[in-house]
Every structure is written in structure tokens, then in C-alpha cells.
Amino acid sequence: MAGDKEIREKLAKLEALFARGATAGERAAAGAARDRLQAKLAFELEADDGPETEMQYSLPDVWSVRIFVALCRKHGIHPYRYPRQRRTTVMVRVRQSRFERTVAGEFRMLHRELTAYFNETVEHLIADAMRSDGDDETLEQNQLPG
């Protein structure tokens, strides 16, 4: 397998760079790249763990879709959508257990980070720019006319 040979060669180069890295930053960058390649190699070489199945993901917003699609492509998975599916729906054909261990796990972590970042940004904007707390828990409860 040509891809396997290329990955192994890159790993050897990264190991050498990691071993002789002059600064902590160089060693950290080489180590991170090495870890990514090792994960990719393990993903490709892992024994067949079942048939590929089509999976549908309905994501909450377009930012989540963009992260999910980018991660799929990073791991060599082709995301797609059928005609008339919503923009927040993404389909993949994968081996489910592998996908859950790699892409889905990484997506959950990044999605948590994105949500926390957006939450901090919105709270900052409301507090500083609007001089308010924006807390919806303190809304008045009016009775419906009836």
C-alpha cells in the first residue's frame, strides 16, 4: 500500500525532528504531527471492524457543520448530502466504531470549545456593549388573554 509507506516515511522524519528539535516549540510541533500521523496509520491499518454503514448527522448550526465536514475530510472521509436535505444534515458512509473513535470524538471536543467560545463572546458583548445581563430566567410571566 503506497499510502502506508508514505506515512511510515513521514513518521520516521518526524521522529528524527522530534529527537533533535532545538526548541520546545519545535519538539511540540513535531510531536503533534507525529501523533496525528500515527493515528492516521492506525486508522488505515486497523483490522476490518464491520461493514461500512451510512450514517446521518443532524447538527445544530452551520458552524458545527463546518467543523464536522472539515474533520471528516481531514480523516479522508467523504461527507455528502442528499437533495432536499437541510444544510445542517451531513451524511457519511463509514465503519461506525472507527468513526466514533476518531472523527466523532474529536468533533465533540471541538464543538464544546466552539460553544464555550461563542457563549463567552455573547456574554461579553451583552455585558459591555449593551450594559445588560440578558438573563432570560428573569423574564416576567404574563397570563395569556383568555
Explain what you see:
The protein is built from four helices and two strands, in the order ααβαβα. Helix 1 (2-20) packs antiparallel against helix 2 (24-45) and helix 3 packs antiparallel against helix 4 (96-129). Helix content is 60%, strand content 8%. The protein is flat, with a radius of gyration of 22 Å. The protein starts with a helix and ends in a 17-residue tail after the last helix.
Q: Could you write a compact summary of the structure shown?
A:
The protein has helices at residues 2-20, 24-45, 62-74, 96-129, and strands spanning 53-58, 89-94. It has 146 residues and is mainly alpha-helical.
Reported for the largest beta sheet, the result is: 2 strands, antiparallel
How many whole angstroms does the radius of gyration measure?
22 Å
- Report mean pLDDT, rounded to a whole number: 81
- Outline the low-pLDDT stretches: none
| General shape | flat
- SS element count, helices: 4
Write down the secondary-structure element order. HHEHEH
Helix content: 55-70%
Alpha-beta content class = mainly alpha
The proportion of strand residues reads: 5-15%
Main-sheet strand order equals 1-2
- What is the terminal-to-terminal distance? 73 Å
Number of strands: 2
